[in-house]
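Curious: why these numbers?
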Amino acid sequence: MQRFLLWSGIDAWRAEAALVELTGDGIRAGGTQLGVDPVPYRLDYELEAHEQFVTRALRVSAQGEGWARRIDLRHDGRGAWSCEAEAEGEVDLPAPGGDTDALAGALDCDLGRSPLTNLMPVRRHSLHKQPGKLDFLMAWVSVPDLVLHRYPQRYEHVRADRHGSIVRFVDRGHSPGFVSELELDGDGLILVYPHLARRVGS
């Protein structure tokens, strides 16, 4: 099944478009995100998580006025990660990439400010359909600097009906204590991520 998704930012001006190939066991996707904070940027990404919704690759490039950078993040499917990073030009952002040893054990990537990558842990454990709550370690890529971070998170099933579901996101590392109830469609894709993004054109 192929889906074309559009989101608009809630907390700031931002837009994202993604072409998603979704199966019962995984996802492949490519998308573009435009934003203005902390500097105006365009970000393009390709995601591969085609077996059990476990990330195998995330390729991201970001560019703005006078600068560009990219990362190629790879995962062996068992918790070991590698990353190639490049940067050119001058911009007041940290260098891209980072210590992949700190990501050991993570099965999922999490692309900053993107509503797409919440899908993988939810679908792998059917949290959009059935009760449960689970802790995860994510390989988080902050945007637009493309720096890697170790990011513990929790997802909790709240409720589901024929229209979709609510899954609670609990931040256990980046901003401990932050909680958000994500509104998902029947496929587990974000409709509304409070304070971040809202689906448009659906």
Q: What stands out?
A: The mean pLDDT is 97. The longest strand covers residues 148-161. The chain has one helix and 14 strands.
